[in-house]
User: Which sequence fits this backbone?
C-alpha cells in the first residue's frame, strides 16, 4: 500500500471514529454544578386528549412548564397513537432506544415487569395517601409500585336516546333488556349496541367487560390458569353471538374499528356505544348532531361491571441511573395536584388524586363518577397482553360464525395455557 | 475467479518481472479497496445479523438481556406449533397470488412502455411513483378505498355488485386484496427491470420475425419472452422473497385478521417477538423463513438453468 493509500485510510478511519462518536451521543448528562436535577428524559404520551391540536398544545405547555421548573432537565414528550401501543413500546425496549417513561395500563405494566421492561417508581411518589388507593394498587406488584397514576379512565355506555325514544323502548340496563330491544330495533335496521371486534382494540374495551358482567374472569384467582373458557365466558360470547345473529350488532362487528367517523353510530344506526371513554362523549355527541346523547351505567348481568383503569406512567428499562433523578422529577411533576387538575379538565378523565375535583359538571359526569364504582382495572397478570392477543382472533371467529362460542373459547384457552406455561 | 499474484505463481515468473507483479498487486489491492465498502456493509448489516439471529434462535432472550441456552428447543416447538403451519399456509397462499400478479402487471407495463415512441420518460416516471411511496401510506390509502363505505364499494354498489368485504371477508379475498395493493405499490421496480431487458433485445431478431410473417403474439411468445428468461428469473426470485416477507400492508390494513386470515409468517414472527417478548422463538421463525426462501430461490434457479440447457 502506498503512503497515499495509507493517508487516505487514516483519514477515513478518523472520519469513521468521528461519526461513531457523534452517533453514540447517549442520553447521559453530567449533574449540574448547583445540585439541580439534570439529565435527558423522553416520555411517550398517548391521545388521552382526543382533539389532536389541543393535545399537542397541552403537552407542549407541560414540557415547557416542567423545564422552567427544572432547567437542568431536557424533557421530550413524544405523542404516539394508541393503536399498536404494545408493539411500539416493546419494540423500543427490545432495541434499547425508546422512552424513559411511557403511559401504560396495569396489565401492560405486569407484562413488561415479567420481561424486565419496567423499573420501580416508589421513590418518585412523595405521599401515596393523596391518590385513590385503587390507582396505586393497580400498579403494585410484589410490594413495589411500577407506575405513577396520572389519571383514571372509565369506560361506560353512551346512549343515542333518540333511537330508543323513536322505537318506544326503555334504555336497556341489563343483558335481558338488550336482548329484548335488539329485534325491535333490528327491524328498523338499527343495532341495539356496537362492538369493536378489531384485533387492534384491547379486549379490556371490548370482550372483557361482558365477561366480567357475566360473572367470569380472564384468569383464575391465583393467576396460574385462564378462566375465560368457563360457563360465564361462554355466556358472554354467546350473548354477543346471539346479538350478532339477530341484527343487534352492526354487521361488521367482528372486525369493526374504534373510529367514530364513518361508523354505524355516526349514521344513527346504533342505540348504545359500549365501552365509551369520557373523552369520546363530545365526538360521539357531535357525530349524531349534538343532541340526544347521554352517558349511562355499564350493563348488568350477574354483576354490573366495566373497565376503568388508572393511566400509569411507567419507568422503562431504557432509563439508566444517570437520568434516574430527572425521570423521578418528571413523575413528581405529573402527579402534582396542579398538573393533574389541568390534565383532568383537558382530557375529561378523572384524576388519580383525591384532592382534584371531577373534570366537569352535569349528568354525564355524575354518571361517569357513579360508573367508577363498577370499574375493574383489567387483570394484571404477567401474561395478560399475550393472552389477549391469543384470544382476540378466536372471538372474531365466533362472531363470524366460523366457530361456536364454546369451540372458540376452548381453542383460545389451549393456546393461552401454552403461553402461561412458557411464562 | 482467480487473480494471478506473485504468491500464487510458483514458477518464479514473478521474480523475473518485478515491475509487472507489483503493478498487478496494486491493481488487486485497489480492486479490493473498491469493493471493501460493499463487503463491510454486507458483513455488518447482513451476515452478522443472520449469525446473531441464528445464535438467538438457540436461546431464550429477555428484554433485560438475560439469556438462557435452549439448544434446538425453539425449533422443535416451532414445528409443533399449529400457528406456524397456519401462517406458512397463509404466506404461501399470498405468494401464489402476489408473484404471478406482479410479474404480469410489470411485464405488461414494460411492454407498453417499450412501444411508446413519445413521452415514454413521463409515463415511466408516473408508473414508478407508487414504488416510491411507503407501504404504510399505500396501506392506509387502500384501506380507505376497500372500506365498506369506501369509493370502490360505492362504485360496485352503483352497478349492483357491492358491497364486497375486501378486507373482512373470506381468506382468499383478503389475501387477494392485500396482494393487489402490494403489486400496485411494487410493480414499478420490476417493470423497469423488464424494460431494461426488453431494450437489450437485438432489434434484428424481431425484425427478422416480422419479415417471416410472425404477428405480435407469436413474436412475444417465441422471441421476446424466451430472450427475457434471465430477467424473468431475477424478478421471480426477488418478488418471491418480497412475497414471503409481507408484513407492512398486513400490519396496516388487517392486523393479521380477520380471525388470522392474513396472519403471515412475518406477522407471526412479529407477534412472538414484540407482543409475546419471545425473541429466541421469533429468531427461530426468522431462520426457518430464511431457509425456506433460500431453498425456493435455489429451486427456481435450477428450474430456469435446466430450461436454458434444454
Assistant:
Amino acid at each position: 500500500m502506498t503512503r497515499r493509500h495509507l493517508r487516505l485510510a487514516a483519514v477515513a478511519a478518523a472520519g469513521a471514529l468521528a461519526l461513531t462518536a457523534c452517533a453514540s451521543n447517549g442520553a447521559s448528562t453530567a449533574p449540574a454544578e448547583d445540585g439541580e436535577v439534570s439529565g435527558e428524559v423522553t416520555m411517550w404520551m398517548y391521545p388521552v386528549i382526543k382533539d389532536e391540536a389541543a393535545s399537542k398544545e397541552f403537552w407542549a405547555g407541560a414540557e415547557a412548564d416542567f423545564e422552567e421548573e427544572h432547567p437542568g432537565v431536557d424533557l421530550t414528550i413524544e405523542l404516539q397513537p394508541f393503536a399498536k401501543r404494545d408493539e411500539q413500546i416493546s419494540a423500543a425496549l427490545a432495541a434499547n432506544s425508546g422512552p424513559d417513561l411511557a403511559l401504560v395500563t396495569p396489565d401492560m405494566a405486569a407484562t413488561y415487569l415479567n420481561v424486565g421492561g419496567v423499573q420501580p417508581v416508589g421513590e418518585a411518589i412523595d405521599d401515596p395517601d393523596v391518590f385513590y388507593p385503587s390507582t396505586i394498587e393497580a400498579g403494585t406488584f410484589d410490594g413495589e409500585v411500577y407506575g405513577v397514576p396520572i389519571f383514571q379512565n372509565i369506560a361506560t355506555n353512551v346512549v343515542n336516546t333518540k333511537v330508543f325514544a323513536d322505537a318506544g323502548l326503555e334504555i336497556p340496563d341489563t343483558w335481558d333488556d338488550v336482548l329484548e330491544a335488539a329485534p325491535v330495533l333490528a327491524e328498523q335496521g338499527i343495532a341495539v349496541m356496537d362492538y369493536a371486534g378489531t384485533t387492534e382494540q384491547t379486549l379490556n374495551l371490548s370482550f372483557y367487560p361482558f365477561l366480567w358482567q357475566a360473572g367470569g374472569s380472564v384468569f383464575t384467582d391465583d393467576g396460574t390458569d385462564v378462566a375465560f373458557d368457563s360457563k360465564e365466558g361462554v355466556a358472554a360470547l354467546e350473548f354477543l353471538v346471539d346479538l350478532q345473529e339477530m341484527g343487534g350488532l352492526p354487521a361488521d362487528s367482528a372486525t369493526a374499528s374504534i373510529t367514530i367517523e364513518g361508523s354505524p353510530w355516526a349514521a344513527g344506526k346504533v342505540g348504545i356505544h359500549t365501552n365509551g371513554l369520557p373523552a369520546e362523549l363530545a365526538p360521539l355527541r357531535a357525530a349524531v348532531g349534538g343532541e340526544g346523547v347521554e352517558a349511562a351505567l355499564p350493563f348488568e348481568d350477574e354483576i354490573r361491571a366495566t373497565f376503568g383503569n388508572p393511566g400509569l406512567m411507567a419507568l422503562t428499562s431504557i432509563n439508566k441511573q444517570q437520568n434516574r433523578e430527572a425521570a423521578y422529577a418528571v413523575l413528581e411533576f405529573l402527579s402534582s395536584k396542579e398538573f393533574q387538575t389541568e390534565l383532568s379538565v383537558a382530557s375529561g378523565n378523572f384524576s388519580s388524586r383525591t384532592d382534584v375535583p371531577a373534570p366537569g359538571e352535569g349528568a354525564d359526569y355524575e354518571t361517569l363518577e357513579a360508573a367508577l364504582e363498577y370499574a375493574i382495572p383489567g387483570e394484571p397478570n404477567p401474561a395478560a397482553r399475550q393472552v389477549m392477543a391469543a384470544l382476540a382472533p378466536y372471538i372474531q371467529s365466533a362472531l363470524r360464525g366460523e366457530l361456536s362460542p364454546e369451540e372458540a373459547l376452548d381453542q383460545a384457552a389451549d393456546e393461552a395455557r401454552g403461553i402461561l406455561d412458557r411464562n | 475467479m482467480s487473480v494471478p499474484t506473485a504468491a500464487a505463481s510458483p514458477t518464479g515468473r514473478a521474480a523475473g518481472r518485478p515491475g509487472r507483479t507489483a503493478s498487478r498487486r496494486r491493481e488487486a489491492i485497489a480492486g479490493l479497496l473498491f469493493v471493501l465498502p460493499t463487503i463491510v456493509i454486507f458483513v455488518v448489516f447482513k451476515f452478522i445479523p443472520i449469525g446473531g439471529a441464528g445464535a438467538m434462535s438457540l436461546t431464550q432472550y429477555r428484554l433485560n438481556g438475560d439469556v438462557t441456552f435452549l439448544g434446538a428447543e425453539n425449533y422443535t416447538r416451532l414445528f409443533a406449533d399449529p400457528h406456524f403451519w397456519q401462517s406458512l399456509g397463509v404466506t404461501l397462499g399470498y405468494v401464489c397470488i402476489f408473484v404471478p400478479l406482479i410479474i404480469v402487471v410489470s411485464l405488461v407495463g414494460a411492454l407498453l412502455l417499450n412501444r411508446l415512441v413519445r413521452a415514454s420518460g413521463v409515463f415511466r416516471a408516473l408508473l414508478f411513483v407508487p414504488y416510491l411511496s411507503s407501504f404504510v401510506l399505500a396501506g392506509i390509502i387502500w384501506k380507505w378505498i376497500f372500506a365498506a363505505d369506501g369509493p370502490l364499494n360505492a362504485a360496485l354498489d352503483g352497478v349492483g355488485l357491492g358491497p364486497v368485504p375486501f378486507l373482512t371477508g373470506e381468506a382468499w379475498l383478503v389475501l387477494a386484496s392485500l396482494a393487489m395493493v402490494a403489486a400496485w405499490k411494487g410493480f414499478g421496480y420490476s417493470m423497469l427491470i423488464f424494460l431494461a431487458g426488453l431494450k437489450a433485445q437485438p432489434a434484428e431478431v424481431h425484425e427478422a420475425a416480422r419479415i417471416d410473417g410472425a404477428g405480435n403474439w407469436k413474436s412475444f411468445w417465441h422471441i421476446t419472452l424466451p430472450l427475457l428468461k434471465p430477467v424473468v428469473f431475477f424478478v421471480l426470485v426477488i418478488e418471491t422473497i418480497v412475497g414471503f416477507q409481507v408484513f407492512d400492508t398486513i400490519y396496516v390494513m388487517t392486523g393479521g385478521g380477520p380471525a388470522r386470515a392474513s396472519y403471515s409468517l412475518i406477522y407471526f414472527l412479529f407477534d412472538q417477538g414484540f407482543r409475546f417478548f419471545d425473541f429466541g422463538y421469533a429468531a427461530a421463525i426468522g431462520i426457518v423463513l430464511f431457509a425456506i426462501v433460500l431453498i425456493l430461490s435455489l429451486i427456481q434457479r435450477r428450474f430456469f438453468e435446466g430450461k436454458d440447457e434444454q
User: Anything to note?
Assistant: Chain B touches chain A at residues 26, 29, 33, 62-66, 83, 147-149, 165, 167-168, 251, 255-260, 263, 270-271, 273-279 (CB under 8 Å).
